[in-house]
Protein: DNA replication and repair protein RecF
Organism: Leifsonia soli
Amino acid sequence: MRVTHLSLTDFRNYRTAEVPFAAGANLFVGRNGQGKTNLVESLGYLSTLGSHRVSSDQAMIRKDADAAIVRARIQHDGRELLVEVQLNRSTPNRAQVNRSAIKPRELPRYFSSVLFAPEDLALVRGEPGIRRRFLDQLLIQRNPRFSAVIADYERVLKQRNTLLKSARASRVREDQLGTLEIWDDRLVQLGSELMDARLDLVARLSDPLVAAYRSVAGDDHHPRLIPQLTIHGAQVDDEDSAAEDDVTGSAGVATPEAFRRALAAVRRKELDRGLTLVGPHRDDVLFELNALPAKGYASHGESWSFALALKLASAELLRQESTTGDPVLILDDVFAELDQARRRMLATAVAGYEQVLITAAVYDDVPDELTAHTVRIEAGAIMETPDA
């Protein structure tokens, strides 16, 4: 799979842009703040339904514009698709494939990409919510129907929390909360499906992660991904500490049953606090190097290698499972953070992909083998190809 042409209208700092792409490596060069990342962010949105920089679609719409449009021509096996999304300020977003309307959540069916950027260091060093978001975006890329599962779970969670807050305010007794059991059923149904899918995804990432880490670090530091589920009593350090002390381990128990037991165990504390204290919205995955948590123990270079390897492993998994070829690999301002040895190793690791999009502020930071098709960007405008 590869992008042959990208059109932008009122996206970030681009009033309009028309960008042709070549097969293989495509390098976009420009000073910081000129729009390089905006360009690749638009393609990342088509495959993940989100930005790697902001949580709101509104930030991607150019100032004083009502909507932004991203339109990409995608080619695979001689077949070409026109994939489009319109991000609106005041109405729901819209999407099309070959001029026929689709639901925006269906976009990942038609375009697949994996983006790595400096912000991804937070996968290793940041809060659990960042890792949950990473897993869920990859789930959606593998199976777009999980977009609906996740949205439904979040809706049920919100309704359940509202009921818990109301019960706390009115001091309703636990035995008077028949409505809560209805929301429990839906929470368990949707949450169990999401947790099981995440567990399967983590297991499938394990081997590609080991290979990818070795390819970019040159060492085998035994990287591991270890799921931490609150329904099994995991102590997850999150923005609001939960009550997992009340949850006993339930290894070997089916996920729905373990979820129900965990909810029963923390019911009184949930009523006291007005929050749902266990479930996939509070889970985490532990990253390990050499049997130690990467967060807190890994050096800066090791953390970078782990985060980069995780994205390369994601790309490899999508490549293995896809019927439409390789995902488009996007490396946003990555080479400036690497030493010469790691730059060469990364260039070798990505050489086999059908298309790789690279952004850089300094042309010389990028290995020569990735500069064959180079475009300069200045102030939201696509300029001439620079001399190598």
Q: What stands out?
A: The chain has a mean pLDDT of 90.
